[in-house]
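Q: Hi! Curious about what Electron transfer flavoprotein subunit alpha/FixB family protein looks like structurally. Here's the sequence.
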Amino acid sequence: MFKALILIDNEAVDYSLDLIEVIHRLVGDETACIYGLKINSKQNVRGLDVVIQIDTPGIQTKDSRVMTDIIEEVHQQYQFDSIIILATEFGRMVAPRLAMRLQVGLVADITDIVVDKQGRKLVRPAFSGNIMASIVCESSPIMASVHPNVFHRKPSEKEPEVIEFIPNKLKASTIEVLEVLTSDENGIDIREAEVIVSAGAGFTQPIAELQPLANQLAGAVAVSKQLVDKKKAPRKIQVGQSGKTVSPKLYLALGIYGSTQHIEGLKNVKDIISVNTDLGAPMNYLANMVVHGDAATFAEKLKNKLEGSSQNG
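A: Let's find out. The predicted structure is below.
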């Protein structure tokens, strides 16, 4: 039986449970036992076969070194065939540490899984997102990290078996959390938005000018990697392989060329409207509707049209 471990991120439980789908694709027709590792969390989880619960006071769950020690000890006892970690900022620190500790490879930011006669292939963008690489993992356990919202588990009411685990080699953390700063912004997380107004290098106006349009559409503003690299927008609203993966009902792409890196951030999007002066842009071939023209001009006219409609209504 194929045994797999998922690290449950206490701040992203739903996205962590989506990794169940990663395991299902990884094993194909084989039988799998999917474990979830929860540390100092009372949140309910469903869909797993087994939950390894650690309730030990004083564990510094923000310390990637402590987390690595815990997962290594759990693995030593259960000997997993695969360990999958959510690629949050914290997960990106834990995954490579653990891979080095276990002396195995790590396939980061996977977007797909293919199982065929050659074996289990983990697919991820390579060469700045210009190609997709299929990587066969010959070491065990198979380790991978996955962006939130890339895979989606099937609904399940299955209650897992719970196993209490007490670490024997737990070291004290040297990290002390002095203050936790939270954003005072009321914006919608682009991963949760049903409508996204997204700007690329072809959008020449300040990104802030798109917020009124997004508000009218009850949506959120996003950007491509080029605007983040140019310091015109924060990374937290970036769509793409190195940003966030989104699944809106409507994606309004304003001046976005549509590189592989960006397209990998779009999953299960219902409708795409692409506005671009370049008719040969790859984004146009994915879109349900293409508008040939300046993205900033289109956004302004659409905003004015919606404002007029609301006033007349």
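A: A fun detail: Residues 295-312 form the longest helix (18 residues).
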